[in-house]
Amino acid sequence: MRKWIVLGVVALVVSSLAYRASQAGADSETPTIKDVMNKLHKGANSPLAQLKGELAAPSPDWDKIQKETKDFVMLGASLAKNDPPKGDKGSWKTLADKYFADAKALDDAASAKNLPAARAAHKNLSTSCKACHGAHKGK
User: Do 35 and 70 share a domain, yes or no?
Assistant: First the structure.
């Protein structure tokens, strides 16, 4: 009987460690371009759209804005790690780096509670779509 209990505990520990290892590997994967765009830009309730409304307020909720801008920096940094669906990789890197720089500027402005700078950085992110999609968006 003890033998079966010990084997059961060992099996449970091994399966638990295997599960944790698989989850750690999944967390370290680079988000795809589609994942980034869906998370940050897609829909009327997207962080990009929400920020537009929040930054239009005369007294923005900076705590809320700062939480949202962190996602732009984190996910924006992953764009350049992906290959574009079409177009030149050099162009993709340039545009992805520009997106990240704009995301970082937005986050920095939010941290400093600098409304004009936050609005300008948000505008840069909002208007960057056409150039990137024209050159690199797949079907």
Answer: yes
